[in-house]
Amino acid sequence: xxxxxxxxxxxxxxxxxxxxxTALVFxxxxxxxxxxxYTAINVWKSWGLQDDAPRIAMTxxxxxxxxxxxxxxxxxxxxxxxxxxxxxxxxxxxxxxxLISSILDTVDGLLLTxxxxxxxxxxxxxxxxxxxxxxxxxxxxxxxxxEARRRGLPILGICxxxxxxxxxxxxxxxxxxxxxxxxxxxxxxxxxxxxxxxxTKLFEIxxxxxxxxxxxxxxxxxxxxGENVIVTAKAPDGIIEAIEIDSSEEWIVAVQWHPELSIDxxxxxxxxxxxxxxxxxxxxxxx
Length: 287
Known about the structure:
By secondary structure, the chain is an alpha/beta fold. It has one domain (52-280): Class I glutamine amidotransferase (GATase) domain (Rossmann fold, 3-Layer(aba) Sandwich), CATH 3.40.50.880. The strands form two sheets. Strands 2-1-3-4-11-10-9-6-7 form a nine-stranded mixed sheet, with helices on both faces. Strands 5-8 form a two-stranded antiparallel sheet. It has nine helices and eleven strands.
């Protein structure tokens, strides 16, 4: 009598377990990276920064980058690498000149970050062509810009920060989302080059007339320039990529791209120049 062969164990549960483990690994990798980054940042804040490190006020971000949790972490790591201490400002429900003044009393510079579109009502634009508008943030940043300039604080604008600076000077913006080529070039991982004007602060910082690759994520661009705003860099397609205020007394520089997201050490030069100016102006006031 032939004994029946034992049934072969099914491989399906094993495969299911393997797939579950793989999915969990990929789920927890970004979580570990996220908390690992913040842990490293907090340790560096406590032990790596000098006591007199420049203190930089950063406006609270919004938009898709903030939703991904990248905004604060990316700006903080860029500032810490350059030796600066970042202070994130929450948008107050209401504010007055006294509050704005008290905020800037304790900082050495102002960083205007990326985010949603500037409200078109501030420059007689088309509201239908703007997304993720936050007029409360706009008004808060406009007040900060005005007071920071009155105090002579250096200002660095990044992406949306470049746009709000132009609007603060009476300039306007335009949407580039409707143009498929421009929209893809200026909002994506592929990046693009920029051509830098000589005899500008940006040229002094990079020491070159061209950056081969910058990472930009913007659906709007500068149109009419505001008062005393000069163009310091453009993309090959003509889109304005950087500006500064034409003043020997002020240090106000802004770019449309995101240097804080780049792993290229060349981009770090912009952050370093900003902090160096913040220290120089702070120390000059103490004399």
